[in-house]
Amino acid sequence: MTPPAVDGHLSSDIVTRARELVALYPHPRSALIPICHLAQEQDGWLRPEAIDEIAALVGLTPAEVLGTASFYEMLRTEPVGNYVVSVCTNIACMLRGAYELLHHVEDSLGVRSGATTADGMFTLEETECIADCGRAPCLAVNHRFVGDVTPESFDHLVEGLRAGTLADDIPRHGTLVRVRRQGGLRVDDDTIRAEREAASAKAAGGA
Amino acid sequence: MDVTETPRIVTSRLEYEDSHTLERYLATGGYEGLRKALGMSPQDVAHEVDAVSLLGRGGAGFPAGRKWSMLRKAPTTYLVVNGDESEPATFKDHLLVERDPHQLIEGVLIAAYAIQATRAFIYVRGEFALGLERVQSALNDAYEHGAAGRDIFGSGFSIDVVVHPGAGAYICGEETALLESLEGKRGFPRIKPPYFPAAIGLYGEPTVVNNVETLSNLPWVMLNGSGAFTALGAGRSTGTRLFALAGHVRNPGVYEVEMVKTTFRHLVFGPEYGGGIPGDRQLKAIIPGGVSAPWFGSEHLDLPLGQDEVGEAGSMLGSGSIVVMDDTTCVVRAAWRITRFFWRESCGQCTPCREGSGWLEKILQRIEDGDGREADVDLLMDVCDNLAPGVSWPPQQTTICVLGSSIPSSIASAIRMFRDDFLVHVKDGGCPHG
């Protein structure tokens, strides 16, 4: 496995965090999806240069990374807007006016579902159930949930996003988890296995 | 969020705004169940859980204790938490990961101790951004508190827990697909046999996969004992269950309900629950256990919410989702939307599912658009028969996983219950509901 070049595409911070992720798993490949999320945090989508470096980090070919990433809705192999607006139209939301809401959102943003506004601010998509049906119809902006959406509340939301007043609640597309892992075990699985065997032998001896 | 008065096993903290914090958790008995478990032998903890008949809360309803007992003996074993809740109209695990992440983590640690897992992974649906942040924060605090990691509470038991984000794929809620995803691959379900996770799971090692709500019950079970748990419910359906109530009800939301003691009617119409159908319209149908479940009509409203009771009536409690459709609902459109979902989410490995879902979606679309033919109704049933021969319940399977055999449920229900609605679409050249 070749480490990414010093002048690689992914920032040194992202690469450091990616290596921490690789170390969390018994096999490096398990870190593939979490690292794809990190690359999107930097670029908003999975740029080909990022895919090359992810492949090196987890010991795969770029084709294997792309082959996996393209399976998942959240991993983007094409650029998207700063804010991805995902309007749920699945059964629970549909029964409570989701398609009527979607038509309003299309008119309001001036794009059809699947498209990005000319200024690159918004990508609109129709999504499957996002598990917020108690507040149907609902939508997500960059996976931050907004429930009981009306045409008026949607337009208000868009104003806030355009004005930048919601940046704390809704980060730019690609930033998924803002909490870093702290703590955790600092011993390897072999130590754990040895301890388990010793404990089990002790329990068997005492019985 | 709506919480009812009694009984509350997994929603006891949700009345607090800070229910997700360690401070609130410790102030309300948090991690005491884990302390108690660590004072017992792993076998005794497993026996206690086996004794309560804790039916898996993810969808399949397999008893958690039995699942643990099937684990192949090996030096390395894994515990994997299925937090990939994606079944349409199911939103209970979403609530639990966001609002009580410590309860989940404590359940994970108790289970990991009972099965003596080498490592635990919490796979959280990728779209749950806040849930992922809450679970990671809670885990960080648990490590700091000594409740997770090295030598937990001085017991000598150590375990590392890893929070793993998904990336958007319904199929990853299927446990073997989830393991593939956790290994960094496409979420393609594995064929069973031989790939039962308890025998050949994550990285080929024996693995227990448990649902979020299932594990969230464990702190209470340890603290209050199996007797208190089995005193709730009846038969095999013990304890409580979360029901996510959605669609045409006044108060959609998640409700914790004692198993078997409550009926569909009570949940939908009771003022403390759904509060009835808005506008005093009539009930047309309910989807009792996620969109993979066959529908019920008003004649089934008095069925109790128990796994076997609903199973014997020809459907399932499944994922704990109940969707109410009133008499203004176009069932063709409802079946179309559900089928469109399966078509989008089919992983594509098996021909009946990959091709069948797309053709069913197209036929339903043309009926809804007014371009249908009378023969289309039988054609739909014929394609369903290719996916699940006999179109019976429980369905026959022609595919690696149950996604394919779940597709006919809504279509066959809509046709069998409301065949005339389909024929009106054909005759009138469009949807009478506009």
The greatest interface here is: A-B, 63 and 79 residues
- Give the class-level CATH name of the domain at 83-163 in chain A: Alpha Beta
- The tally of domains of chain B stands at 3
Question: Main beta sheet of chain B, described?
Answer: 4 strands, parallel
**Low-pLDDT stretches of chain A:** none
Sum up the overall morphology of chain B in one term: globular
Span of the ends, CA to CA of chain A = 49 Å
> What would you give as the CATH superfamily of the domain at 83-163 in chain A?
Glutaredoxin
Strand content of chain B: 5-15%
Order of helices and strands of chain A: HHHHEHHEEEHH
Number of helices of chain A: 8
The share of residues in helices of chain B is 40-55%
Described by the principal axes of the CA atoms, the overall outline of chain A is globular
What is the oligomer described by this structure? heterodimer
Mean pLDDT of chain A: 94
Description of the structure:
The complex is a heterodimer of chains A (207) and B (434). Chain A has 207 residues and is an alpha+beta fold. Among the domains of chain A are: 58 residues, NADH-quinone oxidoreductase subunit E (Arc Repressor Mutant, subunit A, Orthogonal Bundle); 81 residues, Glutaredoxin (3-Layer(aba) Sandwich), CATH 3.40.30. Helix content of chain A is 44%, strand content 9%. Chain A contains eight helices and four strands; from the N terminus they run ααααβααβββαα. Chain A has a four-stranded mixed sheet with strand order 2-1-3-4, with helices on one face. In chain A, strand 3 and strand 4 form a beta hairpin. The mean pLDDT of chain A is 94. Chain B has 434 residues and is α/β, with parallel strands linked by helices. Chain B has three domains: 209 residues, Rossmann fold (3-Layer(aba) Sandwich); 92 residues, Ubiquitin-like (UB roll) (Roll); 98 residues, de novo design (two linked rop proteins) (Up-down Bundle), CATH 1.20.1440. Chain B contains 17 helices and ten strands. In chain B, strands 3-2-1-4 form a four-stranded parallel sheet, sandwiched between helices. In chain B, strands 8-7-10-9 form a four-stranded mixed sheet, with no helix packed on it. The longest helix of chain B is centred in the C-terminal third of the chain and has 21 residues. Chain B is globular and about 75 Å long. The two termini of chain B are 33 Å apart. The interface between A and B is large, with 63 and 79 residues.
